[in-house]
Amino acid sequence: MDSDHDIYDMDSEPEQEEEDFFSDEPIINSDNEKDYTILKDTDIHQLINDDISKTITILSVKRDVALALLLHYNWNMTKANEEWFANKLEVSKAIGMLILEKEETKCLDSDNVNCGICFDEYTVDNIAFAACKQHPFCKGCWECYISTSINDGPKCLVLRCPDPSCNMMVGESMIVKLVCEKDKLKYYDYMFRSYVEENRKIKWCPAPGCEYAVEFEIGSENYDVICDCSNGFCWNCLDEIHRPIECDTIEKWKTRNFEEAVNMKWILTFTKKCPQCNKSIQKNKGCMHMTCVCNYDFCWLCLTKWGSCIGGCNGFKENKEVKEAKKNILRYIHYYERWVSNEKSKQQALKDLNEMKNEGVKKLSELHSLPETQLEFIIQAWQQIVECRRVLKWSYAYGFYLPEEDKAKTQFFEYLQREAGAGLERLHHCVEQELLDHLRSTKKLDYTEQGSYKNYELFRSKLIGLTKVTGNYFDKLVTALENGLIDVNPEEYKRKRELQMSNIAVDDSGMWACDRCTFLNEDFHTVCQMCVVD
């Protein structure tokens, strides 16, 4: 039997070309600067057809066999081809394809044949076979069997002969000829989703309601993906974009947050640790005499050995372990509070960004007779704020897991984080407060020498400068964290900073004025933040 034999037999029906169910629209082109491609449903359909067609051409097999191979190897066409050429017989058995020296179909002794399911007698025209060509069933039973399998779920993609002793496949061509249009659509939907969910190079965008998929270039070190629905996520863990923090740190941090929220109150209220083995113990009786599983007897109130504290543990004494536990909790709360606050600020900034895109820019353009392209700097400022809030938020998770004993890295990290955070606050304040003055204005710009246009130009220059400076700060922070702070030399930074600041006069408010442009800089800056833009 030839390897590309028909996988079903209906003598009464002439052979027809198999239906190409998927669309022929071209795949969208990916941006050369990106390591991924956003796929619409039509793009996925085209990829499926392309992979099947290539497999048919390379292996010289029928479409049913090519599809069964790709499904068996999770749409890994390279592996499917390699395995086929390496051991064709074993692979054929695995996918439910029968290989015989010549085509053999069960001999039908008469014009009427008994169905193997309902046992009624039918003419040969109403009988069909699976790939085995040995077990005849009537069309009605076939339709019921296939339809039930489709409605049971995606296992219908690897459907086998109804005979319990047979493992031969029921191919796509037979399925689409026997079922109704509704079941056919459901079958192809399973295939469509299988291509994404079992393909190691493609994943769905995790945003609720988004129907785009993303094809990723395996081997890329940058996992950041921006879907066409505007959702940003990490390809590796499907969480939100968290560069420069590693996925493992994100997972630990989120697990910690969940555990703290669920367990901390209960543990602190109802349990204490055994002074000897350090296991948590719940008091379930009235007596203060506790016996741990390690057989250590102690007092529930003061945690000292039982008998040594009778009548003497009523006075307050600071416990070293309790003090350390409180310190750890306070440290966690410190980082968690800032993580949450920056997340809230990011969400608000994202909302403000969308409002500015949809309404604010248009309003300013109409009010001041300025083209919207000249107001793009406002959108860029908001986009910078959203991105920086995201980085700053996750930097607190990074800081929480920095070893406390590594003082050099901790100090350097906090220095970079403080510089970046301060720059971001200035930018955010400028956009939120000073921009509002221009949005609230109902007067057109006065282009005279002393008019309002001069103030607008000053604001524009300031905002562009702050956007660039803030971006530079965060670029340094991201680079340092991605490198694991390996180039840390906080003493050298401290020495240079003190040297630079020695020639700068800082007033009581913590600000210093630039000799060149008179711009007021905060004391932690060593160079003027307006002049640096030049």
UniProtKB/TrEMBL annotation:
It is an enzyme of class 2 (transferase). It comes from the Eukaryota. Its cofactor is Zn(2+). Residues 9-21 have a biased composition (Acidic residues). One of its GO terms (biological process) is protein ubiquitination. Might act as an E3 ubiquitin-protein ligase, or as part of E3 complex, which accepts ubiquitin from specific E2 ubiquitin-conjugating enzymes and then transfers it to substrates. This is RBR-type E3 ubiquitin transferase.
